[in-house]
Amino acid sequence: MTDYVIPRAWVITLGNEVLLGEVENTNAGWLARRLTSIGIAVRRIVTSPDDEESIEVLREAVERADVVVSTGGLGPTYDDRTMYLLSRALGLPLETNPRALDMVKRRAAERGFQLTPARLKMAEMPVGAEALENHVGTAPGAVLRHGSAIIIVLPGVPAEMMQMFDEAAEVYLRGMGRGPPCRREATFEGIVEADLAGALLELSKDSSVYVKTQPRGKPGMPAVRILVISFKGNCDEAFRRLEEAARSAGGRLLGE
Amino acid sequence: MTDYVIPRAWVITLGNEVLLGEVENTNAGWLARRLTSIGIAVRRIVTSPDDEESIEVLREAVERADVVVSTGGLGPTYDDRTMYLLSRALGLPLETNPRALDMVKRRAAERGFQLTPARLKMAEMPVGAEALENHVGTAPGAVLRHGSAIIIVLPGVPAEMMQMFDEAAEVYLRGMGRGPPCRREATFEGIVEADLAGALLELSKDSSVYVKTQPRGKPGMPAVRILVISFKGNCDEAFRRLEEAARSAGGRLLGE
Lengths: 256, 256
Prior knowledge:
- 2 copies of one chain form a homodimer.
- In chain A, helix 2 (about 25-35) runs parallel beside helix 7 and helix 8 (about 195-205) packs antiparallel against helix 9 (about 235-250).
- In chain A, the strands form 3 sheets. In chain A, strands 2-1-3-8-7-6 form a 6-stranded mixed sheet, sandwiched between helices. The first copy, chain A, has a 4-stranded antiparallel sheet with strand order 10-11-9-12, covered by helices on one side. A two-stranded antiparallel sheet of chain A has the order 4-5.
- Chain A folds into 2 domains: about 10-175, Molybdenum Cofactor Biosythetic Enzyme, Chain A (3-Layer(aba) Sandwich); about 180-255, Alpha-Beta Plaits, CATH 3.30.70.260.
- The radius of gyration of chain A is 23 Å and the shape is elongated.
- In chain A, about 35% of the residues lie in helices and about 25% in strands.
- Chain A is α/β, with parallel strands linked by helices.
- Chain A has helices at about 15-20, 25-35, 55-65, 80-90, 100-110, 115-120, 160-175, 195-205, 235-250; strands spanning about 10-15, 40-50, 65-70, 95, 125, 130, 140-145, 150-155, 180-190, 210-215, 225-230, 250-255.
- Chains A and B meet through helix 1, helix 2, strand 2, helix 6 and helix 8 of A and helix 1, helix 2, strand 2, helix 6 and helix 8 of B.
- Strand 2 of chain A pairs antiparallel with strand 2 (about 40-50) of chain B, so a sheet runs across the interface.
- Chains A, B: Pfam families: MoCF_biosynth.
- Chains A, B: InterPro entries: CinA, MoaB/Mog-like_dom_sf, MoaB/Mog_dom.
- Chains A, B: This is Molybdopterin binding motif, CinA N-terminal domain.
């Protein structure tokens, strides 16, 4: 099991409105939880603007991550430029994607919209993209494979993004991660964080285990919350070491 | 006025807990609003882990931004490594900062904590840093100047981060921005986004103006919300052009 390499994800949220503080970025946190739950480690989350500066962000993401998930910038207006920025990042021309065009036409017909150039733009994707259906809104998403990376391009509207991610993950990320990481959490009374310093330092050498301690004391009764998370499944051993350190310092597991 | 260069900020939030989806990153949004309100344009927000990978993130931020604000990783535990990562990013050795040491000692005395090595670590900062007092918690923050960039290093606990940012901004960012950007917002009934496409395309050539349109229609009555934000103060002209386009397409300002 030690040779299992955990897939690495970067989440890129594109949009000036987040940078201007006009909109709270709830997409990134949701995607972090979702990716973690299927066993993919999120290594970076970037919010960058709807302009050329994001080309380098997307390019670096594709070079460095196994899974890149972008949100935002797929709509009909001029600042919806994600497909263009991605085509520049990948060095691939934009083309009208036939399946995306069908989706845009169908949605326009259902809702009685005209097929303006702005709406047709929503079907333009880098060559080789597979269109993803938007069941909530109108702008299609896309999946691209580039080198060893898979890129999932989602809309920015949370309800659209969530539905599309879950549907795409089922098809394109299945079997990539090994399911949710193991996770153990406990609080020990009667100790302070410093009592665990030795054990923590030892555990810090294993980068596949994430350990977080937090003081949870009240006056007269210190306490420490311990959280252990590992994608490689070795939570129990890490937890046992911390428990030993806690008990030998006089700690008592809360709830015992 | 046209030669005024808007200061650019990068916000870097360090912490595995956000990447694992354990904690919602509310710090980044708060800082984006705060920086915007003093006239500093946030160009990138990055969340990256408590490990060596963040060295390059911090280095790039310092090279590219006028203001870098980091949050997280200042506490006593082994995964609180921001000062180390920053020292690596800047190529500056860590030293015990005398003012930070005073702060740590004072806080330990007040709260009856022992001065363990883990606590003393909180006073280690890159050479040349100015320590920032933490009035809410125990870990000091820091301000560094590097090349033309100013770096503000804040704790991750929101209440500590907010207090420290506001105090530091008052001293170190005063006069850097020109106050809040102008902002105009209105909704026009009887038009769709496509009616504004020409005017929007025209406005998109001026990168100092951010214009966002959003459909706000109900069945039988389409409507478009227009938001104009500009750090350079030219909102009114942009808004007038959109208003003209909206009216000539039959739009009516909501509330008229």
